[in-house]
């Protein structure tokens, strides 16, 4: 019998034969439940291999569920998410971001389905001069986009920078991440988390799976705290300091960084006169995270600085940061 081919959507194809064999093999015997089985452990290992040792992944049922889980984990109900007018979360998810995550989608018109730093800046409340609009806490992009275009690593890094500069996170709907990575001859990480994405919805259904996606967070401590917040009804509409709660001054932090990047050299600095009521020493209050979530961050400051400094050096070598920043 002739086999027809449907090009209306990649959902038209069946399950990849190798996946059906793998599902049958995984179904043999008895294993521990709730994520303690060997298949889930293998998934966790692959997430670390593909997206870095700090990345943490959570399997979910489908793409819409993955997007809503990701957005709900990193936003509060009064906040907004900047996305394109063609974004799947805006057009094709039956108002789930608003109805379930409780966030306002702040859409932007684009010519190619892609956001730029300029478009993001133009959608900020300050640019719109609207005092009571929802304040965005996330920028969401799609890779590959709904119109078939794709973001380069440089474009993702630029969006990551403007997001972080404005206290926002960068979310990626990666339902077709594999297509974008293959088209540009990039690794999955280079096309997403490795270029600055904080929260990734990683798609499998569009690439031969029977069903199933994953929500992947770039930072392990953050991911653990977010998971606990998602699982606790007492955490709804609450905010938490997901850090170690150790006090440090700016000067102490500067000296620690200097000792790592210029060992043996004396740090010379200029200090402005403090403002009235300025706080020279801050200690984040982590009691609520401990009491409500049972969460305590475990990454020491020195380890975190080693990771951040190594990342900055990679960015310098790649030419992403400017010569002025290097100086």
Can you give a write-up of this model?
With about 325 residues, the chain is α/β, with parallel strands linked by helices. It has two domains: about 10-220, Aspartate Aminotransferase, domain 2 (3-Layer(aba) Sandwich), CATH 3.40.640; about 250-325, no CATH class. The chain is about 40% helix and about 15% strand. It has helices at about 15-25, 40-50, 65-75, 90, 95-100, 115-120, 125-130, 155-165, 175-185, 220-230, 250-260, 285-295, 300-315, 325; strands at about 55-60, 80-85, 105-110, 135-140, 170-175, 200-205, 215, 250, 280. The strands form two sheets. The protein has a seven-stranded mixed sheet, sandwiched between helices. Strands 8-9 form a two-stranded antiparallel ribbon. β4 (about 135-140), α8 (about 155-165) and β5 form a beta-alpha-beta unit. The mean pLDDT is about 85.
Question: How does the SSE layout of this entry go?
Answer:
Blueprint (H helix, E strand, L loop, with lengths): L16 H10 L11 H14 L4 E5 L2 H12 L4 E6 L3 H4 L4 H6 L2 E5 L8 H6 L2 H4 L6 E8 L10 H13 L3 E6 L2 H7 L15 E5 L9 E5 L2 H12 L16 E2 H12 L19 E2 L4 H7 L7 H17 L5 H4 L1
Parallel strand pairs: 2-3, 2-4, 4-5, 5-6
Antiparallel strand pairs: 1-7, 6-7, 8-9
Helix pairs in contact: 11-13
What's the quick description here?
The model has no long low-confidence stretch (mean pLDDT 84). The protein has 14 helices and 9 strands. Helices cover 39% and strands 13% of the residues.
